[in-house]
Amino acid sequence: MARITPLDWPVLRQFRGGDRTGRGTAVTSARTRATSSRTDSADGMAESVCPYCAVGCSQRIYTEDGRVSHIEGNPNSPVSRGRLCPKGAASEQLANSYLRETKVRYRRPYATDWEDLDLDTAMDMIADRFLEARRKHWEDEDEHGHPLRRTMGIASLGGATIDNEENYLIKKFFTAAGAIQIENQARI
After folding, report:
1. Residues facing 138 on adjacent strands
2. Paired strand residues for 105
3. Domain boundaries defined on the chain
4. In tens digits, what is the pLDDT along the chain, a chain of 188 residues?
5. What is the CATH number of domain 44-96?
């Protein structure tokens, strides 16, 4: 570390240099000049929406070496104007937690242990069960012959972390499938 001499004092640097008001380079230390932004070393940046509440604050998610390195508010967002609540600002911990499940876990009926499934198998199981419940509980018409075209075997309950666009698509999907019990936490 270099030794500081009296000539390095900010007041003397101010008068020696061209910074007469003392608001620029004269009062900036070498340490401050060497400091860089946390996002300078990021490999990429993606825009997303905070997963916690229904407000829908926009986030800038910076990645480094395939891992989330920093999350900040998006100043271009009309919703949050670059601000995040403490929970949203700490959502990097959600992405990088060692407790986060990265595999599909399945526990068969009456089993005591979980097993890992590949994603294609799990998606096929969900689709098969969805279609079976729809077919098994389909009501084409009521006892008076009035058309119903619905199923009582499928329902949807969404959370408040789903934004309006996702709720709209879920409503359209489940309605097209014939479900009538469609709700989300934001409406309850």
Report:
1. 151
2. 116
3. 1-35, 44-96, 137-184
4. 567 777 667 677 777 767 667 666 666 777 877 887 777 777 888 888 887 777 788 899 899 888 888 888 899 988 888 888 888 888 888 888 888 888 899 999 999 999 999 999 999 999 999 999 999 999 998 899 999 999 999 998 877 667 677 888 888 999 999 998 888 766 55
5. 2.20.25.90
